[in-house]
């Protein structure tokens, strides 16, 4: 195995909160896939700050992933085609859908992701390797 790409991103949670206040859930629906959207709503309903932090970590992870694959946010990379889900162990993992999943599989790639957040910032780091 060798490294195909590395990506990192930091996100200001206050900016995400302001965007949510301005655009409502439409912003979350643009960024989050179906599984992520359900988790976002559940967390936000319990403690709003937890929902916002969750959205920020996913935003940051998708930005980092797009950098690691060298594409940025252009097809087949889209916000909703890339989801950050939790493995049973709690470890975050990347789940891809549609054209992005097919492209990634055809290249024989594998991704590793980690996310973190504090009061004002969320950050993510992604390593993509060839099999």
Provide a brief overview of the structure.
Belongs to the P-Pant transferase superfamily. AcpS family. With 131 residues, this protein is of the alpha+beta class.
Order of the strands making up the biggest sheet: 1-5-4
What's the end-to-end separation, in Å?
5 Å
Radius of gyration: 14 Å
Mean pLDDT across the residues is 95
CATH topology: Ribosomal Protein L22, Chain A
Task: Note down, in words, how this protein is organized.
The protein is of the alpha+beta class and 131 residues long. It has a single domain, classed as 4'-phosphopantetheinyl transferase domain (Ribosomal Protein L22, Chain A, Alpha-Beta Complex), CATH 3.90.470.20. 47% of the residues lie in helices and 31% in strands. The protein contains five helices and five strands; from the N terminus they run E-H-H-H-H-E-E-H-E-E. The strands form two sheets. It has a three-stranded antiparallel beta sheet with strand order 1-5-4. A two-stranded antiparallel sheet has the order 2-3. Helix 3 runs antiparallel to helix 4. The chain is globular and about 40 Å long. The termini are close together.
Blueprint (SSEs and pairs):
Layout: E1 2-12, H1 13-23, H2 25-31, H3 34-46, H4 48-68, E2 82-86, E3 92-96, H5 98-106, E4 109-117, E5 121-130
Antiparallel strand pairs: 1-5, 2-3, 4-5
Helix pairs in contact: 1-4, 3-4
Question: Any descriptors?
Answer:
single chain; 131 residues; alpha+beta; Ribosomal Protein L22, Chain A; three-stranded antiparallel beta sheet; two-stranded antiparallel ribbon; 5 helices; 5 strands; 31% strand; globular; 4-PPantetheinyl_Trfase_dom; Ppantetheine-prot_Trfase_dom
